[in-house]
Write a structure and sequence with these properties.
Structural class: mainly alpha
Distance between the termini: 36 Å
Number of strands: 0
Length: 299
């Protein structure tokens, strides 16, 4: 199997995992503060990743990379995920999915500006088609009193996530995906801890209230962060930013599928149309056009 194919599979799997995160995270944040949920997610993931990285001796980084590694940890873990949690909590999961869908566009833009990647017109068209599909799936949610605040937080989260993706891709030229994710996650857990502690002390129910809640904590930590973040960073080691970023648009689609399977939600014609557009856009971005075969002169 080609390295690029493996990269796409890793990115698709991580996006699918994150698609299920909305269900688990939303359930937890109904009783727990978002920052406490965030700290559980990052703290448990950091412990697991540190143990694995230490076993494989992949914790060493050069002194001149301290600041870039520290930066992607804060931007990608503390700020991006923290703002996403609060934004989704304020604006709702539907708007959360929609705003998150802007990330591939930002990733493609930053990839062209920072990594000097060439983004052909065909790929911009693919991103546009998939984004329209997400809009059709999500629809137009009814605005609430916290919608403006939620959307603002989600936009900041999308920008930070795009910066994290490009920053970690740059670091992958010198370090393994395990090293980058482990250090970044640990930085995120440490920098989020003071804010989570304050939220914990002022919360009525700061901890999960039953075994199902603790199961959701383990899912968002072990699968939704440690595994999914590793797959996301590793995938970009083999795929360009603009091609791989569009796979993030699978998240709302997976959320719809899980809603049907787990919650018994009905499927509208708009949902089916949106799903077709998302799949078409992703396919257009992922499948590269083969160059025409050169005709050799006859002997």
């Amino acid at each position: 199997m080609k390295a690029s194919t493996q990269g796409f599979l890793a990115l698709a799997l991580s996006s699918a995992i994150w698609g299920g995160m909305y269900v688990a995270s939303d359930a937890l944040m109904r009783t727990m503060p978002p920052l406490v949920v965030l700290e559980f997610r990052e703290g448990i993931s950091a412990i697991i990743l540190l143990a694995i990285a230490a076993r494989h001796r992949q914790l060493h980084i050069d002194r001149h990379d301290y600041l870039p590694m520290f930066g992607v940890g804060i931007i990608g873990f503390s700020v991006s995920i923290g703002f996403q949690f609060y934004g989704t909590h304020a604006a709702g999961a539907a708007l959360g999915s929609l705003v998150t869908a802007s990330s591939p566009v930002l990733i493609a833009l930053l990839g062209a500006l920072v990594l000097k990647e060439h983004v052909p017109t065909r790929r911009w068209l693919a991103i546009g088609i998939a984004f329209v599909g997400v809009v059709v799936i999500v629809g137009t949610p009814a605005p609430g009193k916290d919608t403006a605040l939620g959307v603002s937080l989600l936009l900041v989260a999308a920008v930070c996530w795009s910066i994290y993706t490009i920053g970690s891709t740059s670091l992958l030229t010198r370090y393994s995906a395990l090293t980058v994710v482990t250090i970044a996650c640990t930085v995120g857990a440490i920098t989020s801890l003071p804010f989570a502690s304050i939220a914990y002390l002022h919360a009525r129910h700061p901890l999960p209230m039953n075994l199902a809640g603790w199961g959701e904590v383990l899912y968002i930590s072990v699968i939704g962060m440690a595994l999914a973040f590793f797959l996301w960073v590793w995938g970009f080691k083999h795929v360009s930013a603009s091609r791989g970023g569009v796979l993030l648009l699978f998240q709302p689609l997976i959320g719809i599928v899980l809603g049907i399977v787990l919650l018994g939600e009905t499927v509208s014609i708009g949902t089916l149309l949106g799903a077709v557009l998302v799949c078409a856009g992703v396919t257009l971005a992922v499948v590269e056009r083969k160059p025409p075969l050169a005709l050799e002169p006859m002997p």
